[in-house]
Amino acid sequence: MNRTGRILLVTALVAVVAMAFRVSWNALRDIANAIGADHTAATLYPFVVDGLMALALVATLVLIGRDRTFALRVLGTYTLASLVLNYVHGLVPELHGRTVDWGRLADWDPANWALVLLATSLPVGSIYFGSDLVAKVLHHRPAPIPTPVTNSEESTETVRNRSTADLPESTPAPAVANPVRMPDPVAVGFLKSALPLKPVPAIAPTPVKPIGSTPKSTVAATSPRPRGATGRVPEAARSPRPKRTPAQLLDEARTAMTGLPDGKVTAEGIRREVHTSPANARVLRDTLLAERAAAVGAS
User: Assign residue 103 a region: left if phi > 0, alpha if psi is -120 to 50, beta otherwise?
Assistant: First the structure.
């Protein structure tokens, strides 16, 4: 049903409920007058009964589970009570002209007591059940609607598992392993008339050297560079480095800086080549420059 149809349906329902409420108005008002209500209370009494019926109907549409069952019971109870009171109003003509005795709804005393108890208990029940229904509606949380998820694997599997009848072509016949085929006379004649192919020279196999005969220099050149440590190595895992004397450091610095001009003899270069601290590298640089200056002055 489209939106216009829904609006018309709801409008018609509201009109029918309003007319039914107006028809039941006189009966419930006269019942309220008969049980001792004043003019204002008798005028509001129909709202107590029929109004709670409307509230219970709305709660039935909103709630689910046990709360919906409770709302249906309240709706059924007050509908039955309104029906009984309207029925009594139709059986006792004196209620229409307000000539009935106060507190008298039936000639039989047990029936009269039950009707008076029903009519007087409906307002109190409206307070209790109406408050409970409103609290249930306000605390109700509708369940979320699951979002359909398209699974590509499921769709692929569905296509893959189709029956043979759904395929556009029938299943091919099973292939026979190593079929024996007879020579074709035409093909044989063609092969005889074809020119002979040139012989292809055989390729000599490349001699493979044993692993043990590979030179050490080749192995060292082709071996991958060892990976450096990505973090700080623990003290226990470090290999002890032998401590070198100042004389040994000086000899290594002379060897590393041999052939370099004085301008290239730097502390950073010595530190990288000798693997020493920056302070020792500066001392070695000054010593080498001093030796070179002394050698130049002596010559």
Answer: left
Q: Model pTM greater than 0.70? A: no
CA angle centred on 112, ends 106 and 114, rounded to 5°: 140
Contact 265, 251 (CB under 8 A): no
Which is it for the CA torsion 16, 21, 24, 26, positive or negative?
negative
Alpha-carbon distances, residue 279 vs 4, 32, 268 (angstroms): 92, 110, 10
- Structure token pair of residue 232: 């700080």
Would you state the structure tokens that stand for residue 54, as one six-digit string? 């409307």
How confident is the prediction along the chain (299 residues), in pLDDT tens digits per residue?
A: 788 888 888 889 888 888 888 888 888 888 888 888 888 988 899 999 988 998 998 899 899 999 999 999 999 999 999 999 988 888 876 776 665 555 567 767 788 889 889 988 999 999 999 999 999 999 888 766 666 655 544 444 444 555 444 545 555 555 555 555 555 554 445 444 455 556 666 666 666 655 555 555 444 445 556 665 566 666 666 666 678 888 888 888 888 888 888 888 888 888 888 888 888 888 888 888 888 888 888 87
| DSSP symbols for 195-248 | PPPPPPPPPPPPPPPPGGGS-HHHHHHHSPPPPPPSSPPPGGGSPPPPPPPHHH
